[in-house]
Amino acid sequence: xxxxxxxxxxxxxxxxxxxxxxxxxxxxxxxxxxxxxxxxxxxxxxxxxxxxxxxxxxxxxxxxxxxxxxxxxxxxxxxxxxxxxxxxxxxxxxxxxxxxxxxxxxxxxxxxxxxxxxxxxxxxxxxxxxxxxxxxxxxxxxxxxxxxxxxxxxx
Length: 155
Hints:
It is built from 3 helices and 8 strands, in the order H-E-E-H-E-E-E-E-E-E-H. It has helices spanning 2-22, 72-77, 146-154; strands at 48-58, 61-66, 79-86, 93-94, 97-99, 102-111, 114-119, 123-133. The strands form 2 sheets. The protein has a 4-stranded antiparallel sheet. Strands 2-7-6-5 form a 4-stranded antiparallel sheet, with no helix packed on it.
């Protein structure tokens, strides 16, 4: 039994050595023919705007930020993200911002052209970033009908 195990062990070691020294050698193959050009794709929905406010002071209560890029279309079908950092930090924090179980900074209201933040503290030297993403109105699509969904997204 011991002889069989030794034989198998040595055989596997030799096989592994031969495979690693032989399998990587040889000529590179020739370059194949150029493939056909694919159909040009449609541009996707990547209408994203980032609005930065530097050196801001947030006061306990509501603070309104005028954001002209927050259009009716974004208000109706898009989304708004908000981030905050203290000037000099190398990271951003996403709103709502909380300490423990208490929210200390959040978006209270979004309107066309402005956003209102609500805070439970006062802090200066802040940077705020609002990321505005346009959406698509898909309310007329029957998502229970595969063909209708496929037709919408492919056309």
